[in-house]
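User: I've been going back and forth on whether these two constructs are worth ordering. Before I decide, could you fold them both?

Assistant: Sure. I'll take them in the order you sent them. The first construct and its structure tokens:
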Amino acid sequence: MEIVCVLRYTMNAVVASGLSSQSVKAEFDEHAKEEQEHMCLVAERINQLGGKQNFNPEGLARKAASQYTEGANLVEMIKENLIAERSACDHYQELIRFFADKDPATREMMEGILVNEIEQANDMYDLSVAHEGTPTLRK
């Protein structure tokens, strides 16, 4: 999921255009870097637990909890990222419940990532309000 988010945010940061796109591009770029940090944290934890990470691009989008979609314009990009962030939040909440008392260290790591994902979702919502007025997606 995090790899797909890195790719989507990076592409959005590159192709976003329009009068007010510079600040949004910067936000997309910042989120891409944060998602890469999440990816590395999760990969390192998998390694610590003796597991094998899967960075193989084949089937990546199919296995991810969020989709890789390219919005046709700035507002669509923001909306797609908001949907993806909400999906990520749901996914991390499920993981936190799964790990609960079974693996407190992993649970705490997931809780930290979830806090950042919630902030990113809020950022995308705020951008949606700023660029759309009344967003079609709830907060």
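The second construct, handled the same way:
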Amino acid sequence: MTENNHTVIVAKDLADLIPVFFRNRQKEVETLRSALAAGDFDQLRQLGHRMKGVGNSYGFAKVSEIGKRVEDGARAGDKTAIDACVGEYADFLSKVQIVYE
């Protein structure tokens, strides 16, 4: 399970789970935006932490990497950094190409 730019190689046995995974990630983007608008750094930290775990579990290292940055930004109270992460996350989700192996 590796990732190159917007192409992600995912194990074939996860193919049935990926549509739900992506629906949840899209909802997560909206939740991140709402929490950021509200200045809810505790929720942002929790969301970032969850992203860290779920991304690698499904073969999406980029999701985990962005999650770590969201979590770190929330701990620092850095709205600008988190906003950039949310934009990058939404962009990644809209462009990602999945290859099953």
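Notes on the second construct follow. The helical segments are 18-38, 41-57, 61-76, 79-95. The CA atoms of residues 55 and 63 lie 5 Å apart.
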